[in-house]
Amino acid sequence: MAKKAKGGKKGEVLVIASKMKDAIRSQGCNVSSDVVDALSGKIHEMIKAAVGRCKDNGRKTVRGYDF
């Protein structure tokens, strides 16, 4: 699947589709065509929240515990 946008914008795909699909299939499930976009959307939400926490704490470096 190709990237939808550049520069970290909301619609950009942030997951490796083949790896994600393999992980789901390895657990005995099939993968719908909308899963990659849905997962990327969740990741965008998580990043936004982590950046917010980072900034709220007066930092410019996002750390693992911000997630």
In short:
Residues 1-7 have low confidence and may be disordered. The chain has helices at residues 17-25, 35-56. The chain has two helices and no strands.
Structural class: mainly alpha
First-residue to last-residue Cα separation: 26 Å
Number of contiguous helices: 2
What is the alpha-carbon Rg in Å? 14 Å
Residue fraction in strands: under 5%
Reading the helices and strands in chain order gives HH
Largest sheet: none
Give a count of the beta strands, DSSP E runs of length 2 or more: 0
Q: What's the mean pLDDT score?
A: 89
Mass-distribution shape: elongated
User: Residue share in helices?
Assistant: 40-55%
Low-pLDDT runs: 1-7
Would you give an account of this structure?
The protein is mostly helical and 67 residues long. The chain has a domain at 33-67. Helix content is 46%, strand content 0%. It has two helices and no strands. Residues 1-7 have low confidence and may be disordered.
